[in-house]
Request: fold
Amino acid sequence: MLTIAHYFTGHAVVQIRLIFCLLCSNTFFAYVQRFNHTFPPLSCTTTDGAAGLHGLKRVIRRNGMRVGEVIPLHCLRSPAHVIPRFGKEANQRLTRHTAYELSNEFWLNKYWNKEIFYALST
Reply:
């Protein structure tokens, strides 16, 4: 599940990988993998010119491993809808079950709900 999480520095799109609670604790945590909006699209902005969608890219270490972190569950704010960005050619191994796991670049659908639309339209 992809969601928007609140961090001390703002909001980020993350993929929830695991929700857990430590023994003898009432606090729930989530292990998440973060997305950044840093890949350069055709223009110098972080949005697609035609649709106005924001570009996202998985945060990946130099060795190819995804960057993950543990955050308190109460920091998760809202589900997010992302669309894989295929480019000129799509990976032949992509199916509806593997598209999110095999893709590293995505579009954030700001039209999915009004809260996300207003937050990203400013």
